[in-house]
Amino acid sequence: MHWGHARSKDLVHWEHLPMALAPTPRGPDKDGCFSGSAFVNDGVPTLVYTGVFPEVQCLATSDDAMIRWKKFECNPVLDAPPAGLQVTGFRDPTIWKEADSWLMTVGSGFKGQGGAVLLYGSKDLTHWTYLHTLLTASPFEEKTHAAHAIRYDAVAVGDMWECPDFLPLAQKHCLLVSTQGRVYYFTGSYSHQKFQRESAGLVDGSDLYYAAKSFLGQGGRRILWGWLREARTEAAQRQAGWAGVMSLPRVLSLGPEDSLQIDPIPELRMLRGKHFEFGESEVSSLLPIEEIRGGTLEIRLKAELRDARQVGLKVRQSPDAAEETTIAYDTATQNLVLDTRRSSLTPDASRRIYTSPLKLRAGEPLELTIFVDCSVVEIFANRRANLTGRIYPSRLDANGIGVIVSGGRSRINSIEIHEMLPISQDRLTT
Questions:
Q1: What are phi and psi of 207, to 5 degrees?
Q2: How many C-beta atoms lie closer than 10 Å to residue 8's C-beta?
Q3: Amino acid 430: pLDDT
């Protein structure tokens, strides 16, 4: 595994740079440079990452241009988990500074007990002392050991927390971890290197959004990236010549009751092209939108649910509906739903229903922001529920859009649709 590298002035248009990290033969990262984080040490850009196998923590530095990176000659700086602890993993470090000390979290866990984030301290970045666990699993997390009784997988059962990211957010702190195929958040109070969690939830309801990490952007915005997995066969990925994609950047903020609010970055508006608006209307069935079609769209819908069972949209729909993707809010289950069972006619694509809990307050309208980008669908609902899917339509005419209401009537307050412009002539290389 290598570290790719790209830079941008606006988080939308990107320039690819040379690889930042590659395995060193016979080095501590000879089998791969796994995940980590970046920080600045006295003006020097610095990376911390996991070398495998075994799992050890390493450093690399660069000059101000951050084009070429030099690995620390005395890597690894942390070569083993704490003595006496039987851990399920030891990877994905994040470093930050508090007062005159450096602190580092490392993803870990304990077999049969649950995931954990280990906390270390250092004065010089090269000599580290284990302090304690920053957080361990508890009744917040559902355990699914029975489903994995044949082959134990620490990540799948939640006994390993990957890619921990610990960050201040307004007057609280937030810890992100990836496990059981999803990204979870915990918000709470942090003082004297101790974290007391007070709220928890999902960053995204889909298991296709994973390994999320954040950074502090201009204006103090906390911006989150996630890795979007594929939902097609390995053979199809090899034939395509690529696999995986980064999510749209998302802005994090603290919501009511210390929940995590998630919004797409406003810079995405610079990609807006042809525009269509749909005014208020009472809808009780499928309402096709003929004025605009496409496979790269930004859609915003606001609706009063009334007595409807489901309210939402169909996208990437062929004229005969043989291919279509359904996005809806289900009032009975109080779930945001992404149905990809008819998204593609190709046998290589996965067909599933994804859900994310969303409890609307009395009288609260449904507000959806949806980005459709070829095989990717990202859904933002009421700033607190998110779903990501991969759809792979096979038909060139699968580009229709329609409003769907079932089980009653709904008032559609507004719909705004923008065609989305490409970020470059060749998004794979530029």
A1: -85, 10
A2: 12
A3: 44
Superfamily of domain 272-420, CATH level 4? Exo-inulinase; domain 1 (2.60.120.560)
What's the CATH number for 6-264? 2.115.10.20
Domain ranges of the chain: 6-264, 272-420
Q: What local confidence, expressed as pLDDT, does residue 143 receive? A: 43
- In three-state form (DSSP H/G/I as H, E/B as E, the rest C), the secondary structure along 240-280 is HCCCCEECCCEEEEECHHHCEEEEECHHHHHHEEEEEEECC
Give Cβ neighbours of residue 234 (< 8 Å, ≥ 6 apart).
none
As to burial, measured by CB atoms within 10 angstroms (0-12 exposed, 13-18 middle, 19+ buried), residue 409 is: middle
Determine whether 22 is exposed, middle or buried from the number of CB atoms within 10 Å of its CB (0-12, 13-18, 19+). middle
- Give the count of beta carbons closer than 10 Å to the beta carbon of residue 307: 10
Alpha carbon distances (Å) from 4 to 16, 22, 68, 279, 319 = 8, 9, 12, 44, 40
Q: pLDDT averaged over the chain?
A: 93
- This prediction has a pTM of 0.94
For residues 166 and 134, what is the distance between their CA atoms, to the nearest angstrom?
10
